């Protein structure tokens, strides 16, 4: 799964003025605590989940993804750290947090939106707004369940879909 994110990211970052950018998944990053020189971008997207305990499957339209990103101009190296917030299964009652599974199309849309933020912040560009929407191929059963959402428990699960 990390390779899928990295491959799509490399395609987006290829044209960034000779700087070399890398992406890494990092579940230790905390929203609002990105550190000096780092920027934050939070996006909400559709994803699927599979319970590892009871095999229940579900989809969610509000899966939070936190990006922390920085550019070391003197070394021409940029770094993006990504945290994908998890959810618990409501059926089996276990406290096991499950990783979201995003479609490659939705990863692409998220990273395109992130690239816009990077271009504005570090390159002084103003790219046009993306007209691409997230792809949803599933069924959402009822409202968002805050009791089972890691992002809600962390205080960052917002009603809006995008902020930073």
Automatic annotation (TrEMBL):
One of its GO terms (molecular function) is olfactory receptor binding. The keyword Methyltransferase does not apply. It is a single-pass membrane protein. It is found in: Membrane. GO terms for biological process: protein insertion into membrane; protein targeting to membrane. Keywords: Membrane, Metal-binding, Transmembrane, Transmembrane helix, Zinc, Zinc-finger. GO terms for cellular component: membrane. InterPro entries: R-trans_p, ZAR1/RTP1-5-like_Znf-3CxxC. Coiled coil: none annotated. Pfam families: Zn_ribbon_3CxxC (PF13695). Residues 44-155 form the 3CxxC-type domain. It comes from the Eukaryota. PANTHER family: RECEPTOR TRANSPORTING PROTEIN, RECEPTOR-TRANSPORTING PROTEIN 4. This is Receptor-transporting protein 3-like. It comes from Astyanax mexicanus (Blind cave fish). The lineage of its organism: Eukaryota, Metazoa, Chordata, Craniata, Vertebrata.
């Amino acid at each position: 799964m990390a390779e899928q994110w990295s491959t799509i990211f490399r395609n987006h970052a290829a044209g960034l003025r000779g700087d070399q950018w890398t992406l890494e998944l990092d579940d230790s990053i905390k929203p609002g605590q990105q550190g000096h020189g780092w920027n934050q971008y939070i996006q909400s997207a559709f994803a699927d989940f599979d319970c590892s305990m009871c095999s229940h499957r579900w989809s969610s339209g509000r899966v939070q993804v936190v990006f922390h990103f920085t550019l070391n101009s003197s070394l021409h190296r940029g770094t993006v750290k990504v945290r994908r917030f998890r959810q618990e299964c409501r059926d089996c009652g276990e406290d096991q947090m499950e990783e979201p599974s995003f479609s490659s199309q939705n990863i692409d849309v998220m990273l395109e939106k992130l690239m816009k933020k990077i271009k504005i912040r570090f390159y002084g560009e103003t790219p046009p707004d993306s007209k691409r929407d997230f792809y949803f191929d599933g069924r959402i059963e009822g409202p968002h369940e805050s009791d089972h959402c890691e992002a809600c428990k962390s205080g960052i699960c917002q009603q809006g879909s995008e902020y930073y």
